[in-house]
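ESCALATION

Customer reports they have been waiting on this structure for their group meeting. Please prioritize. Original submission:
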Amino acid sequence: MSEYILEMKNITKEFPGVKALNNVSFKVKKGEIKALVGENGAGKSTLMKVLSGVYGYGTYTGDIVLNGEVCQFNDIQQSEKAGIAIIHQELALIPQLSISENIFLSHPRKKGIAIDWNLTRSHAIPLLERVGLNEDPNTAINQIGVGKQQLVEIAKALSKQCSLLILDEPTAALNEKDSKNLLDLLKSLQAEGMTCIIISHKLNEIVYIADSVTVLRDGQTVADFDDAAQINEDEIIRHMVGRELSNRYPTKTHTPSADEIILEVKNWNVGHPEFPERKIIKDLNIKLRKGEVVGMSGLMGAGRTEFAMSLFGKSYGANITGEVYKDGKQIDVSTVSKAIDNGIAYLSEDRKTYGLVLDHTISKNISLANLKRVSKNGILNLYQEIKETGENAKQFGVKCSSIFQNAGQLSGGNQQKVVLAKWMFNQPDILILDEPTRGIDVGAKYDIYCIINELAASGKSVLVISSELPEILGICDRVYVMNEGEIKGEMPIEEASQESIMRLLV
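Update from on-call: job pushed to the front of the queue and completed.
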């Protein structure tokens, strides 16, 4: 009997004008944690969609061999029946339903033709215990955090009696503590005999958990590391990007102004949108200097995103009070339009929902924030729009077939570049970047860091909200540490370290 639970042999998948997978081979041993890595657009998700039946048999060439038998999956249901479960980066949970209802949504516990709610609850309890989730099964999904929702997804997969669990960027939205707990859970499931495939851009996590690693680049297998002792970040990066990235962060080319304050927020308070008397942000004070990159660090739930959204046109919260000054003069940010008119731009952590119109072209997305620039008397100048958005896309290094390509067809890194290009098309003075590299590979991250560096060098003030401490330390000039809606400390980057920041968070 073969030692491999899965063998994908010579998989080739083509889309119109693009060969997404070119003769890819991929093997997974029984009971191991296998990592699949590569830059955005390398073919990782496509390969897993072939495996899980999203791209059915006949839409690709090559063979899938599971437990020694050639399989031909035409849909997800067939792959699940064979013991394969996939958890996507965008969690497939219904917020208003309970934990137990979500677990058994596709295969309800029944008594006759009716759903047996007592059975649903009782069957959910041991699954929740198995994933270490101490919550009442009747709790609504929207009442628990993202980390716990990820555990519910795993419980849902286990309920289907899967033997091969695939996780796509499982820790992308988690803080370090929740990420560590999730990875340790995977190790405990492995000890029970589970086989896992994990796709992740967080290479430190790959080194921590993976028994073997396969690297894809441009739709091809470029490296296999079958020995855990061979797995190190630098070697993986070299194969991922096809070049050495000796320094993950570009050399700073900007020098922040010593005394020219561009933005100052004073005594900022924000109430919960549903319970206004409950303060989410409490007496917050921050400053941004000209040409400065300022980091805002904190654990999930610290209030960083809530602060950013409340500042950007009061897009979040209730009973918002406080003052905002630009160049020493108080400004009105009570609406998104007024915030934009005052030179503020906000790049959301959720680029697909709030940053882009996915079924519109790159050109249309870039011009969206400043249609006045390419219009006269209310009439859009299409030639000017195409010319100027094309220049912006080129300036930000957007890799695309043309600016008429839909944004939804781009990789995550290129989508983020389009969002940055969109806001720079509006020529802001202040950029708030919320998790700007979430779900982006190391090569694209470096490109984003270079863009941030260049923006600061041109005199822009940049506030970077990030859950990745190395990122904060690598690109920022100064850092605020936030916890429970309050600023707990501020330090120049020369005095900052992961340890000094974490001390302020506990």
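Sent to customer with the following note: Residues 7 and 234 are 27 Å apart (CA to CA).
Escalation resolved.
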